[in-house]
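Blinded run. Sample ID left blank on purpose so nobody reads anything into the name before looking at the predicted structure. Input follows.
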Amino acid sequence: MGGMLLVTLILQAPDLLKSLFSGDKAAARTIIGGFAGVKLCWLQWRYRHIAYPQLRR
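Blinded prediction complete.
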């Protein structure tokens, strides 16, 4: 899920950056929230490998 969110952020990056530089605060919240979601998915994935080592295959 985090990978799909990251791909979506990358595909929307030109529009988000254009909106961000024009002063749109919603674009900043979208960028921060998107990267927070990607980080949360990554942390969950790392936790799963630590908590359940039998799933590493």
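Unblinding after everyone has recorded impressions. The mean pLDDT is 89.
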